[in-house]
Write a structure and sequence with these properties.
heterodimer, A: alpha/beta, Rossmann fold, 12 helices, B: alpha+beta, Cytochrome-c3 Hydrogenase, chain B, 4-stranded antiparallel β-sheet, 3-stranded antiparallel β-sheet, 17% strand, globular, binds iron/sulfur cluster
Amino acid sequence: MAEIKKPKLAVWKFASCDGCQLSLLDCEDELLAVADSVQIANFPEASREIIKGPYDISLVEGSITTPHDAERIHRIRRQSKLLITIGACATAGGIQALRNFTSVDSYVTTVYATPAYISTLKKSTPISEHVPVDFELRGCPVNKYQLLEVINAYLNGRKPNTPPHSVCMECKSKGLVCVAVAQKTVCMGPLTHAGCGALCPEYNRGCFGCYGPKETPNTASLAAWWREHGEKNTDIMRSFRGFNAYAEPFRKESEAHENI
Amino acid sequence: MKTSDAPKNSTIKVDYLARVEGEGSLYVKIKKGQVTDARLKIFEPPRFFEAFLRGRTWKEPPDITARICGICPVAYQMSSCHAIEDAFGVKISPEIRELRRLLYCGEWIESHVLHVYMLHAPDFLGYQDVIALSKDHPEAAQRGLRMKKIGNDIVTLLGGREIHPINVRVGGFYKIPAKKRFAELLENLKWARDAAVETVRWAATLPMPDFEQDYTFVALRHAEEYGMNEGRLVSNKGLDIDIHQYNHTFFEKHVAHSNALQSVMEDGSNYFVGPLARFNLNFDRLSPLAREIAREVGYEPPVTNPFRSIVVRSIETLYAFDEAIRIIEADVFPEQAAVEVRPRAGTGYGCTEAPRGILFHRYKFDERGTILDAQIVPPTSQNQSTIERDLRNFVPRNLDLSDEELTWKCEQAIRNYDPCISCATHFLKLDIERES
Ligand code: SF4
Ligand code: SF4
């Protein structure tokens, strides 16, 4: 009797810190169960074994920063039924997208003595600028329970349940004291995509937007409020130039505070 | 993975090294039974951290540099905080210092256990990965996963989350969690300490390739503690310097054959950082229990076979559990989450023991605390030249193995160092020639 075929899961890495894929290995209680329900066909951080595609689900971490990677992502797309990007690098270009606001050549010469050896693109871009993406999971890093939910949902043919509202809403529903109101802390919670459970406010700290922009964030109004409370333009610009600097709403707002 | 014909005259190529963090490849060339070339190639794309840190403020490096490596973010947070506090003349309280140590113990545990059980042990036992290993050794795999989780619990409590913690700041923490939350960890930690003893005994039974080498071991040494956040940089060959002297002792060298910048000592020789170096230089600073169990399995300095690092990593894991319990049971917690920090112009240095070895940071600030210049030297770039030397020495002794076996053994030899390639590349020269 033929064995029931398990769906094949692949994990791919582009420019990144490995933190998002590590989230999978950090699912200590669930890892062996996940390995039972899917065939881990390509996950070099965890296994030597590489099983040929096509793959049912591809998880993609990291951003596109080299000519070679810009080609490689197309090959992966062709082999993948579903392609899911995980983390700020893959969904928005990551912290390495700070090069997009200056000339990458100056970066190369700052870090490397022999720039000729470095092959790099001028911009660090999200996967969705290169190929169609079936689902984007936010965060720097992603929340591991959300990651499990996404995998589970697709294995069962349903849509993942990952609320699109703001960190601010998560903060309220947890009954935390608002750090912006109570401590006059700069907090990006009203603009930032939910998913972390309002972690920073829980630790007396303003959100710095590591989950990226929520849908239609009103960046200008929050920036204006910060200005009223004495924040300088350069500080406002820096706040938007973090781990999701190249996500469009954050990029536009940071550019609005450049050189004024 | 590709391998080729007869081992006498052949090339070993592993195009994508597995079970390491990041993207690297291995290249060894054998001619008439001689190794003519051995390279650990790094093709991880550069991310330019040192460049974009310029112009950022002093508050940002702990969060930004954490993103160099998802496996050891706490190390980046610790080294950056110490460097910035050094620049501004900030003294943290002894209580904050202890909690930083506790946080670091958590990271050592989760990183070491990940490596011992999930990345390295499969090599010794002949499995492709931990999932295959768990089928035949379910008890060991379960034990490893639970220990790792308990290490992560420390980081999550004190840091907010296990990857890229949000609670670390220059001067201390944003918030000190309630006392009872720490106490709640104790029961699990004590189970894990016993499990760590088991782990040492288990790791010591793994078959060890015979490969004794003469190394220059470099690690932090502290007057009372097993080196972690502070100490002088010492070696088994007489080095003993303040960390401020780092750049006078260690240099980045351009090696023509590999197109890579590698960290070497003044005379061009390579050195070895990480668990084996710490163990050999600080055995007397381990806890009594860790020393006792190390002796029981026959481990005392000098340990000079890098394959034995899996046992040493297990001993350090035991130490880290023991130390975490000591800190929590001492029951002294900071009244204030952070000390005051006032920026000033100047340069600061930080060097701490990441799970994989010393991690050096240097920052130069203007008077408002804006970063003018940054330098970061991760452990893997310091070990890279030693790894290549190991390959050159290891391969000739094992030419009787089939290509497939020899390739796997070479991978295992690289994994002795638990190399974190994501870390190393933001400064390594890339060899952009790719095999694919
Ligand atoms: S999104 Fe953040 S955590 Fe994830 S890979 Fe990128 S830098 Fe690492
Ligand atoms: S509160 Fe904001 S910065 Fe903090 S973890 Fe959540 S999304 Fe990231």
